[in-house]
Amino acid sequence: MVQDQHERKLLADAVGAQPTVCRLQAELPINHQRLAQRHNSELEALRWHLNRSGELDRTLSRSAVDDFTVDAATGFVTDVAVSVLRAAGWP
């Protein structure tokens, strides 16, 4: 995950090319619901991820490191993947 412009530059330097960065975005209540399903028996991990999700959302909004954003709130994973490919302009 790339959280700021410095990390984006480090990634570009590491791979020798400019990356295309897509932010998959869903409202926090949806993220929280998904996290609760994923960590339903791990309360400490769930608590950490719930806190981190809000923090990360604010960080990514401020840094504007993404080239484009795709709504990941609805649809199947394959639908989101197709949306990413289209937004990136990849065939």
What report would you give on this structure?
It is a single chain. The protein is mainly alpha-helical. The chain has one domain (5-86). 60% of the residues lie in helices and 9% in strands. The protein contains four helices and two strands; from the N terminus they run H-E-H-H-E-H. A two-stranded parallel sheet has the order 1-2. Helix 2 runs antiparallel to helix 3 (43-63). The radius of gyration is 15 Å and the shape is globular. The relative contact order is 0.18. The model has no long low-confidence stretch (mean pLDDT 93).
Number of domain units = 1
Structural class: mainly alpha
- Rg over C-alpha atoms, rounded to the nearest angstrom: 15 Å
Quick check: average pLDDT?
93
The dominant shape is globular
**How many helices?**
4
Helix content, binned percent: 55-70%
Question: What is the helix/strand order?
Answer: HEHHEH
